[in-house]
Amino acid sequence: MASASFVEVISHFAGYLQIFHDIARDRVHYDESLAPRPPDDYITLRPDYDHPFTPDDLETRVGPAPDLIPDDPAHFNRIHSIRSLSDTPDLDLGFFPPSRGPNIQLPTSAGGGGSSGVDFHIKVEYQPGGEQSQVEVHQRNILHDDDTLLQLNGGLAPSDLTLSLATNIAATIERMADAANGEIPQEWWIPQNGTGATDFLTAHDADWAANGGTPDAHSVQPGYYLNGVLQDPAPIAPDQTLIVEPAPLPDTGQGLGQWAVLGNNSSLNAALIIDLGESGRTMIVNGDYFHTDAIFQTNTIVDHDHINVSDGPTPLAATGDDVTTNIADFVQHPGVYASIQATFAGPHWNVDVVDGNYYNVHVLLQTNYLFDNDVVVQSSADTHYDLVDGHNQLGNLAQLFNGEIHYDLIVIEGAYHGMNVIFQNNLLLNNDQIHVAADGADPTQSVESGQNNLLNDATIENYGGDNFGEMTDGMKAILSALEAGATSLDPSLGTAVDGSGGVFNVLYVTGDYYDINAVWQTNVISDVNVIYQLQNQPSSSALTYFPDGPGTQSVTTGSNSLVNDAAIIDVGPTNTYVTGQVYTDTILVQANLLPSDQDQAVNADTQALIPELIAFVDDSQDDTCTTPATIPASVQADPIASVLQ
């Protein structure tokens, strides 16, 4: 049954705190005293300028009064002239505080008059560094809840129907997976691991450049898409999206009859990736710049119900009403430093050097397999027979918070390869065979099936990474100095890039830069039910207590929920300068695979249906067959993993 935590799963992600804005502001260094501290120093106490005093501490003696202004104007001519300020000692420039104004006066060598002056330069220190990351998270749930409930005389017996169901279900799901894969362009069948994703992106970007930057065939403009249609304006997202608890079971009372509630399974994947690895003020790319955002979503459902009821009053039969939804949202925000004033980049540069390629790769796979296939026979006369089956729940929850806002400048000698991609797939097999009959009784009969819900919801949200400019002479000079390993820079280069005051942190990569965030989410539910209800004539003793006789025969199936929810928050540089070419693209594929409605609800002849039910019950009462029913290995072998992207 449902756990309380299931209702809270999505709320962990909805309305997430955009704390990186505050982190960026905290890095701005203000001169609070003559001894400024590093921007990440939150331990050292700040000076206290509120000194308590009492009037007794003050000197209260009277001092001499100033001389009166003379009445003779010629007296001013006898006052000594003011001494020239040209001979004042040089300023102590051992510490050069960052300027807050847009036009800063750089310190220069003092000259003339034989004075000794101080020559100011930006100090540069190098060290191997640059924390790289390759994170892979695999979450998988597999649940088998295949039930066989038959009327037996003391033994558990399998039936040919039970065994054939397992084989047919596995083959059907594989065909559904093939159909879903057919909606995803084959060139986007990415290996589901970090190395495979990196190799894919290298080849993809090379082909992209070779084709002159031609957009993908499924390229779209950023925005909010609902089932393939751009919503303009986009709806306002709620603060929280909570999972709706399953509907409570109906109150069946105390009377005679048969009630069966099957299905009502829930499968959920929820993922959040926050990537701060490239969240600097400035990025300089000496090669080409590639960035792709892509979302692929499919919902596949097969819901063919066959309902047979005995003749008499027309039964209440409700089928269909399955809902499939794909939501994709591509959001672009200004960089986190866009509203924060830039300052002088200096006087000390701390450079982390990565010799070769740099990798910032995050791969997250979430998969749920839920098998709830039931064969049920309800045969009664003098009882209140209430059967509840299914109501299973599976869930995967993951959050990756990677990196920190650390570097002010990222320099890449090679190319930048960036990709945010989300794959979401829901597969539901919900075929039901429902047979309802009454032998000598006249109950109220009702059948409900369908009411399934399949939802894919994906968001790719970028901060920065969209403000491109041409390399300035100052930036070219910085690039050359870093290539040469210069340990000091002319102070004028401190204005060529934006700084935050204090230590200026630089990441210098001699090769290519790989920035990959990839999510795969898959839900597979097989909810195939075969149910027979046979209501016999109550005995005279039962009718004494229940004079109304067998009042109800009710079957409810379906109501399964499959949900994928994923968000990638990618915080990039506020300003990007590229020597080569810039390639950016947004790709979207959304598909709902819904076979035509093949539900059948008919009134069958009682005399033809009752022998069929009785024969089904009698076939399962062979005392010579007592081996428990088993599931073929094909179902256990996870048929989806090798075919579903």
Helix content: 10-25%
The termini sit apart by 30 Å
Structural class: mainly beta
Supply Rg.
Answer: 37 Å
What is the approximate shape?
Answer: elongated
Count the DSSP helices. 8
Number of strands: 32
> Can you list the strand order of the major beta sheet?
23-30-8-18-25-13-1-24
Strand content: 35-45%
Poorly predicted runs: 1-8, 10-20, 30-35, 73-117, 600-640
Q: Let me know the largest β-sheet.
A: 8 strands, mixed
Mean of residue pLDDT?
77
Protein name: Type I secretion protein
Give a structural overview:
- Helix content is 14%, strand content 36%.
- With 645 residues, the chain is mainly β.
- It has an eight-stranded mixed β-sheet, with helices on one face. A seven-stranded mixed β-sheet has the order 5-4-12-22-29-7-17, with no helix packed on it.
- Strand 4 and strand 5 form a beta hairpin.
- The longest helix is centred in the first third of the chain and has 24 residues, at 160-183.
- 40% of the residues are buried.
Output the keywords.
645 residues; mainly beta; eight-stranded mixed sheet; seven-stranded mixed sheet; elongated; Type I secretion protein
Quick gist of this model?
The chain has 645 residues and is mainly β. It contains eight helices and 32 strands.
Which SSEs are present, and which pair or pack?
Elements: H1 4-7, H2 20-26, E1 122-128, E2 133-144, E3 147-149, H3 160-183, H4 194-210, E4 224-226, E5 229-231, E6 257-261, E7 266-275, E8 282-285, E9 289-302, E10 305-310, E11 316-318, E12 323-333, E13 348-354, E14 358-371, E15 374-380, E16 384-388, E17 393-402, E18 409-412, E19 416-429, E20 432-439, E21 444-448, E22 453-463, E23 468-469, H5 473-484, E24 488-489, E25 504-509, E26 513-526, E27 529-536, H6 540-545, E28 552-556, E29 561-571, E30 575-578, E31 582-593, E32 600-604, H7 606-619, H8 633-636
Parallel strand pairs: 1-13, 2-14, 3-15, 6-16, 6-28, 7-17, 7-29, 8-18, 8-30, 9-19, 9-31, 10-20, 10-32, 11-21, 12-22, 13-25, 14-26, 15-27, 18-25, 19-26, 20-27, 21-28, 22-29, 23-30
Antiparallel strand pairs: 1-24, 4-5, 4-12
